[in-house]
Design goal:
By secondary structure, this protein is of the alpha/beta class. The chain contains 11 helices and 8 strands. An 8-stranded parallel β-barrel has the order 1-2-3-4-5-6-7-8, surrounded by 6 helices. α9 links the parallel β6 and β7. The protein is globular, with a radius of gyration of 17 Å. It starts with a strand and ends with a helix. The model has no long low-confidence stretch (mean pLDDT 94). Bound molecules: 2-phosphoglycolic acid (PGA). The site of 2-phosphoglycolic acid has 11 residues, from β8.
Length: 247
C-alpha cells in the first residue's frame, strides 16, 4: 500500500490508569519496528484519567496519543469540562471530537462540535472530527443530508487551511451487527472528500474494524485509515489489525 495509513484506537470509557500501564507492558510487542514505518501512523485516544500512563507508553513506542473530547473555552465556570490548556500539559496533540456517542448520548450539537474543532486547530493541535448517520437515518435515505449538515457546520467556520489539517472520521452509528460494507464506507468517504473540496484530506473509517476486515477496508482508495473501538482495547486485537495492514 503506498498511501499513508492511520490506525487510531478509540478506547471510549475503557482502560483505567492501571489497565493503561498494563497495556503498554505488552504493546507493541513483537512489532517494535513499527515506529520506524513512515507509511503508518498509530494512535490511541484514552479517557482523561488515563492520559498520563498513555503519554508515557505512547512516547516510548512512537505513537501519537490523544483525548476523546475537550471544551472550547480555555477556563472558567464549566463544571465537569476539560480545557485545551489542561490537555496541553499532558503533551496531547490530537483530540477526537463529535464522536457519534457525544452526538447521540450527550446531545452535542453541530455548532458546539464545530467550535471545539476550531479551538483545537487554533491551539495548534489536530482534531479528529467524527461524523456519520444513524441506522434510522440511513434506512430513511438521509445519510448524505445528515452528513452534509454535520460537515458544513464545521467547514463553514474553518479556513481552507484549517480544514486541510483536520483528520475526518466517518463513523456511522448503524448499530451492533450492522457494519458498513467496504463499498458503503468507500462511497461515503469519496463523497466526503468531494464535499470538503480537498483531495488530500485524511479520512478514516470507524465501525467494527478488526483484524479480519481491516485489509479490505484499508485498501479502498478513499479510506486512509481506521478509527478502531472495541478491537483497540487489548494489545493483541489492536496488533492483529496492524498485522493485517502489513500482510
Ligand atoms: P467499534 O467503535 O470499532 O467498537 O465499532 C468505533 C468507534 O465508535 O470509534
Amino acid at each position: 500500500m503506498s498511501k499513508k495509513i492511520y490506525l487510531y484506537g478509540n478506547w471510549k470509557m475503557n482502560n483505567t490508569y492501571r489497565e493503561t500501564e498494563k497495556f503498554f507492558e505488552e504493546f507493541p510487542g513483537v512489532y517494535e519496528p513499527f515506529k520506524n514505518d513512515a507509511g503508518l501512523e498509530v494512535g490511541i485516544f484514552a479517557p482523561f484519567t488515563s492520559l498520563w500512563p498513555l503519554s508515557q507508553g505512547a512516547k516510548k513506542c512512537g505513537i501519537v496519543f490523544g483525548a476523546q473530547n475537550v471544551y472550547y473555552e480555555p477556563k472558567g465556570a464549566f463544571t465537569g469540562e476539560i480545557s485545551i490548556p489542561m490537555l496541553k500539559e499532558y503533551d496531547v496533540t490530537h483530540i477526537i471530537l463529535g464522536h457519534s456517542e457525544r452526538r447521540h448520548i450527550f446531545f452535542e450539537p453541530d455548532e458546539m462540535i464545530a467550535k471545539k474543532t476550531k479551538a483545537v486547530l487554533e491551539a495548534g493541535m489536530t482534531p479528529v472530527f467524527c461524523y456519520g448517520e444513524t441506522l434510522e437515518e440511513r434506512e430513511s435515505g438521509n445519510t448524505f443530508t445528515v452528513m452534509e449538515r454535520q460537515l458544513k457546520a464545521v467547514l463553514d467556520i474553518l479556513t481552507p487551511e484549517e480544514a486541510a489539517k483536520v483528520i475526518y472520521a466517518y463513523e456511522p452509528a448503524i448499530g451492533t451487527g450492522k457494519t458498513a460494507t467496504p463499498d458503503q464506507a468507500e462511497e461515503v468517504c469519496k463523497w466526503s472528500r468531494e464535499l470538503i473540496g480537498n483531495p488530500k484530506v485524511v479520512i478514516l473509517y470507524g465501525g467494527s474494524v478488526k483484524g479480519s476486515n481491516a485489509k479490505e477496508l484499508l485498501s479502498m482508495p478513499d479510506i486512509d485509515g481506521a478509527l478502531v473501538g472495541g478491537a483497540s482495547l487489548k494489545p493483541a486485537s489492536f496488533l492483529e489489525i496492524y498485522g493485517a495492514y502489513k500482510g
